[in-house]
Amino acid sequence: MQIDITHRPGNSAAKVSLESGESITAEGGAMIAMSGHVQVETTTHKKDSGSILGALKRLVTGESLFLNHFTPNAGPGEVYFGTALSGDMMQYDLNGPGIMVQGGSYVASAPSVDMDIQWQGLGKTFFSGESMFLIRLSGQGPVILNSFGAIYPIEVNGDYIVDTGHIVAFEETLNYEISKAGGSWLSSILGGEGLVCKFRGQGTVWCQSHNAGSFGAALGPMLKARG
Predict the structure, then answer these.
(1) What angle do CA 99, 169, 185 make, to 5 degrees?
(2) 174-218 pLDDT per residue, tens
(3) CA 51, 173, 125, 168 torsion-angle sign
(4) CA-to-CA distance for 104 and 28, rounded, in angstroms?
(5) Are 142 and 168 in contact (CB under 8 A)?
(6) Which of 12, 18, 76, 180 is 20 to 30 A from 164, comparing alpha carbons?
(7) Is the bond preceding 9 in cis, omega lying within 30 degrees of 0?
(8) Which helix (H) or strand (E) holds 58?
(9) Tens of pLDDT, residues 96-110
(10) CA–CA separation, 21 vs 18, rounded Å?
(11) Measured in whole angstroms, how far is the alpha carbon of residue 27 from the centre of its chain?
């Protein structure tokens, strides 16, 4: 499997080249184009398996109910994947600790990568209270993630604070807690920062340059109702 990400960082697309019989699993609706002899199988989980429970668990993170599995069966083939929002994409090769991914940032992965949903508990309500679930990716193999705007890594060694709306993913070697940005809830709200994620330990956090929630709030008043 060869992954090439083009047109970075504003309008990225991922070209995945596959050998005959080789597969890649992707979020429903992520495919842009593919070779004519690529076969597509749709399940609620891993290829040749799945359950409604697994699909419903993904649904609470904002992901699609189904996953698509692309396999060229008559020679090598290719599949192109894109982003839901204008932004960047990245490849991460799992080979050790897993990574935690915000809902909406998962694009595709090798069939050898396992996907699960983790409940963060009421004390760790994530992304400004909009979700209490994260996607956990583990196992071995490449993963493709997307972001809103540019994506960039931050190496954490100790303590680091990131606005929750700008987090794409982080290595599970990091501990974290959700907290107010300012000294009080009033100053956090008035300052426009709201909630932040305080990471502790050693590992990588991947951030996106834009915040989808802030973008929606700014765009909403400009939209005219139909009729």
Answers:
(1) 125
(2) 998 877 665 555 554 555 556 788 999 999 999 999 877 766 667
(3) negative
(4) 11
(5) no
(6) 12
(7) yes
(8) helix 52-59
(9) 889 999 878 999 999
(10) 8
(11) 10
